[in-house]
Amino acid sequence: MKVLALDDIDVQGIKVLEEAGLEVEARGKMKEEELKEALPSFDALIVRSGTKVTASALAGAKKLKIIGRAGVGIDNIDVDAATEKGILVVNAPEGNTVAAAEHTLALMLALARNIPQASNLLKQGVWEKKKFLGVELRHKTLGILGLGKIGSEVARRARAFDMRLIAYDPYVSPEQAERLGVTLLPLEEVLKQADFLTLHLPLTRDTYHLLDREKLLLLKQGARLLNVARGGIVDEQALYEALASGHLAGAALDVFEEEPLTDSPLFKLDNVIVTPHLGASTAEAQVAVAVEVAQDVVRCLRGEPVLNAVNIPVLRGQALETLRPYLKLVERLGSFLSQLMEGPILEAELSTSGELAQHELSPLTNAFLKGLLRPLLGETVNYVNAPVVARKRGIRVRENKTREMGYYTTVISATVKGRREGYTVAGAVNQRGEPRLVGLNGYGLDAELEGHMLVIPHIDKPRIVGPVGLAIGDYGINIAGMQVGRREAGGEAVMILRIDSEVPREVLDSIRQVDGVLDVRYLCL
Known about the structure:
Layout: E1 2-5, H1 11-19, E2 23-26, H2 32-38, E3 44-47, H3 55-58, E4 66-69, H4 79-84, E5 88-90, H5 97-113, H6 115-123, E6 141-145, H7 149-159, E7 164-168, H8 174-179, E8 183-184, H9 187-193, E9 196-199, H10 213-216, E10 223-227, H11 236-244, E11 248-253, E12 272-274, H12 283-301, H13 317-340, E13 347-354, H14 362-377, H15 386-392, E14 396-402, E15 410-417, E16 422-429, E17 435-440, E18 443-448, E19 452-459, H16 465-473, E20 479-486, E21 492-499, H17 505-512, E22 521-524
Parallel strand pairs: 1-2, 1-3, 3-4, 4-5, 6-7, 6-9, 7-8, 9-10, 10-11, 11-12, 13-14
Antiparallel strand pairs: 13-15, 15-16, 16-17, 17-18, 19-21, 19-22, 20-21
Helix pairs in contact: 1-12, 5-7, 13-14, 14-15
């Protein structure tokens, strides 16, 4: 079998492929048309971030079985197009963990002691000491936003500097944080107490501009900020203002909202240190991600289970054909529940009834957990590692099944619980294989599970639907569909609206003002 390895994949990864008896063609970055022309001859493709694997490039790739991304991010791969063609996509989520953690510590030390600024001035022939008075890390409070793999590694290393460690991560159990020597606190408390704040969150809809002007002003006077995670988590204009005004003593940034970036107001500030997305740029990390993804490519081409699948669980033959539409259903149900919940999820349960009960549930559970965790943790969660991630986050997972059959031949219900709230949804697949929401907390429904949605609990009475529609229409947003479920006339009910675009906060606030509306949640599936 033949493997096309692009973007100068490390030679150690090539060696793994060749030792497995695969024929490897190693090249640099390819343009879309070049890739489209080349792919029909190959069984596997490995890329880094340089080559974009588009739907057009995959159009004629009839032999291609797997695409490997030597790194974590998969934004340069059209995963949906690959999935539709039955092509497995894998990445290498572990290989650069230490590199990113060490880069964070390097930037923290450089920020504390003004090392780049002092070095630049001395090279210009100026011996200056008083201007570069620094601070010690010892006894300082390090606030960590995101206590996943990289955040945990940063915490372990920061303990050696005798720092006090606090963190915000609503999806990590107190026991796990305690093992790391970290105290979990609400976001606002972490911001208020941190002398140094380091970010290790995925970029999602919820974390985009998480640190806006208001949040940055919660940081204490003279605090320092580090971002070796993803650009876009920090509002760069608000950060510039906080630094220029002297509210923040400094910032060290490895990532930016738009990359590559060579000109920014931030670059003109003396108290800002910047690097061009070097978090994973170590010789060891490049070897590690190349070897990690190469090993999964070998496993796939040998017909063995892979470790880091991004798009589909490892199923074969008729089982895959039977479960395929339900995998999509449960992933959507998980995402739906995740976006409804506020605060940490402590329990999750998946139940099947009807014809599907004769099949093994683990692929469905994995897909459900992937959907549940993806909105919170981003692209590092996949079908294979979702159960491990859930377990590490302290989520208790249960499976149930019964052969009893109702209106639908198969109904899948899912329940999640937190400290103060819980939700149960039911889903089914129609004759066209499309996922449908058929129940929410006991309310009967039949709604599409796709796109932009509003969930609006309300009192069942006249003059609800009209004002809600006006509140949405006044902002030029079109309603694509509506479902209402109730248990009894005049009691509580729920409205599900499908809309054509994202809803700004002002619209949600307007809907909440409608008499009889109890709440409103915006979801995007």
